[in-house]
Every structure is written in structure tokens, then in C-alpha cells.
Amino acid sequence: MPKKNLIIALVLYVLSAGISFTAFSYFAKGSLATNLNPKNIDDPEETLLSSLLNITPGEAVDQACPLNGAYYTATEKNAWEKRRPLFVMIENTPDSRPQAGLSKADVVFEAVAEGGVTRFGALFYCAAQYQELTLAPIRSARTYFVDWASGFNLPMYVHVGGANVAGPTDALGQIGDYGWEGENDINQFSVGYPTFVRNYNRIPGKEIATEHTMETTTEALWAVAAKRDWTGTTPERVVARKTIPAATWASAYKGWTYEAETFSASSTSKIAYDFWSGYNQYSVEWNYDSNTDSYKRNNAGEAFTDINNDEQIASKNVIILFTTEKGPINEKKHMLYGTTGRGKALIFKHGQAPIEANWTKATREAELQFVDVRGKNVELARGQVWISVLANDSEVTY
Questions:
Q1: Among 273, 156, 202, which residue's Cα sits nearest to residue 29?
Q2: Would you give per-residue pLDDT tens digits along the chain (398 residues)?
Q3: Is-cis flag, bond preceding 354, omega within 30?
Q4: Distances (CA, A) of 228 to 79, 123, 161, 190, 191
Q5: Residues 382 and 288 occupy one common structural domain
Q6: Residue 248 near residue 233, CB atoms below 8 Å
Q7: Alpha-carbon gap, residue 342 to 99, rounded angstroms
Q8: Same domain, 252 and 152
Q9: 17 and 98 in one domain?
């Protein structure tokens, strides 16, 4: 082949390769879980994780989840006992909706992050063993979410950076002070790709800004934990001047109290509240569905769904936790919420009138508890627990 033709062929090859790579990169820039979690498969038993679990048809579903009392198989329990829960920061701006993963969270905390914009701290453990879950969009740490996470016996705390303005809202400083960087902190800035990816196409047909694109999966996060030897055993540590020996996560976590008997539904079919007056994009409404014995969530008047499965978020328990609210206290509009001590709570389950209860949390690392007027633990329904944190003077209609 003449030298001139060889050069032309080489140039054409390079151009073709470049165009092919660009096209592949664009069209393959989909969900991280498209590769790791084939969520479009009709039969979930065909997914990678469920086949590894090898759940046999007819296996008894009689093992209670320590986080919310829901029942699972012994196979799933054996899987979660090798791990600690994930406590994941997920945002809730209108541009970030629909989020990924919340329908399978065992417990969700919800509070204002700044400027009236709410954020979620979601615990993934029992429901996340059967099938790998995409989680998105991941956002930054806030001090009060760190405090609530602290009551769950060193779960993996998953976030993208965090508030770092000097003072009481310095979540990153607190994480360092608590020693979490060597025990349970999974910060995107210290982990990076491929555990975390910027997926600009995570909501098909919707153009989203960079801050709404951070995505990961439950298995990717637990893989990081395993690599760091952060397994189902919590390390020895000192709490309130007392040495807490190393122990399995479940043995050191007491958890809430759950119902053992049947129930009867009544007339409380709708719950509604605002976090801040006038911020209607974050208005919440729960509607009781007697067919599923759960409360289905609307945000800003629209069904609040999980993009992983297109299901509307449905919780067995809706808890309104009233506490002190302070802020904005700096130029970043950061907030502070009371997380320890005692306060009022409304607990909704089974479509019944709410239980007027108290929440208690003696210290940052103490478990959050819900007690009735007699001081006895309130029995929750078995299934997802959703806790919305509102200022003491907030109005809830039902």
C-alpha cells in the first residue's frame, strides 16, 4: 500500500475510533446500577445478588429486621449479619426527584438541610440484601443527621462532603472528632469512582444540574466497607468514659418495639404538614391505603416515587418528631435541630388516630426511643419507619 494511502487509512481509523468511543461514552453514561443492578429484569431472582443469596422458593419469612421489625428469610438475615447498616444522605430538591432507593429503605429521617430544603438520612440494611439498589442523589452531611446516625451503633455513614463552616454546624469536623474516618465514614471525596459516579442521565428525559447527579449502589458501598474491614462487628470504643467491647452489630443494637398482634384500621386516612410555611415544594401528604396497610406519600401534591421501581413511597409508620429548630445560623443558611433530650411525637400506623408520644435520646450515641405517656415503649407496625423532624410549633393536620 502506498505511504499516502496508509496515512489516510490511519487517520480514518483514528477518527472512527474516536467517534465510536464518544458515542459509546454518551449512550453508556446511564445508571451505575444498569451495569451492577439489572433492575429491569422482571424476575428479581435473576439478579446477581439474589442468585448469590440463593433464596429457595418457599423459604420461611420469619426473621425480624432489627431496624424496623419487618420479616425476611434466614438467608437474608445471614447476609445482613455480616454487615452494618448504611446511613445514606439523599437530597430532596424538586430537581432531584424522583430519587432512587427510598422505597427499600428500612428507616428514613427527614429534616430541613438549609433554606427550607429538606434532606433524607436513609438506613439500608434488611430490604437491601435481596437485590442491589441504586441510591441517588447522594448529598452532603449535616450535624443533626450525624447525631441521629450515631444512635444506630456505627452504621456506614455515606455522604458527599458536608457542612464545614466553623461552629456547631461543622459536620465534617464532628465526623473527624468522633473518629468515624477510621470506623464507618464513607465520604465520596475519599472514595471516588467507580463507587460513586456522576450520572447525568439518571432521570431519563430530564436535564439535571451536577449537584443532583451523584449515584452509588448498596453493594458498591458494602464493598468499600469490606475492603476497610468494617464488617458486621463494631470495634471496641469508649462511650461516656465506658469501654464498649467489640461486638456484632445486632447484639449491640436494641432497636424499637414492634407489634405482635393483629390490628384494626380506623378513620385517620390523611396526614399533611409543611416543614416551613410557604415552602410548598416540600409540603408532605400521606394517604392511608387499607389494601397495603401503609401510608403513600405525596410531595408538593404529586406522588413521591422511587425511580428504581416506579413505586410510590409507602411507609408502615409515619412519625412526626417535634424538636427545637435554630437557624439559619450562618451565610450557608445551615440549621440546627435538637437531637438529644426529650420531646413530643405523633405516631401514625394502620390508619388509626395518632399516638401522642414522647421521643427520648439521652446522648448522641444513645438510641432514639418512642415512649407513651406512661413511659412504656410504643409498639410500632412492622415495616418502613419514616421520621419527619419538625419545629416544635409546626402544625400537622389529620
A1: 202
A2: 444 443 444 334 334 434 333 333 333 344 454 433 333 333 444 444 445 688 889 999 999 999 999 999 999 999 999 999 999 999 999 999 999 999 999 999 999 999 999 999 999 999 999 999 999 999 999 999 999 999 999 999 999 999 999 999 999 999 999 999 999 999 999 999 999 999 999 999 999 999 999 999 999 999 999 999 999 999 888 776 788 888 999 898 999 999 987 677 677 899 999 999 999 999 999 999 999 999 999 999 999 999 999 999 999 999 999 999 999 999 999 999 999 999 999 999 999 999 999 999 999 999 999 999 999 999 999 999 999 999 999 999 99
A3: no
A4: 18, 20, 19, 12, 11
A5: yes
A6: yes
A7: 32
A8: yes
A9: no
Residue 259, C-beta contacts closer than 8 angstroms, at least 6 positions apart: 69, 379, 380, 381, 382
Reduce the DSSP state of residue 24 to 3 states and report it.
helix
The full DSSP string for 122-142 is EEESSTTSSS--EEB-B--B-
Residues 208 and 95 grouped into a single domain:
yes
Rounded distance, CA 120 to CA 282, Å? 12
- Residues 103, 23 share a domain: no
Instruction: Report yes or no on 23 lying in a domain.
Output: yes
**Residues 14, 108 share a domain:** no
Distance, in Å, from the CA atom of 268 to the CA atom of 289, rounded to the nearest integer, reads 11
Considering the domain architecture, whether residues 25 and 83 belong to the same structural domain is answered as no
In a domain, 382, yes or no: yes
Give the domain range for residue 384.
Answer: 79-398
State how far the Cα of 217 lies from the Cα of 135, in Å rounded to an integer.
Answer: 5
Number of structural domains the chain divides into: 2
For residues 166 and 260, membership in a common domain is answered with: yes
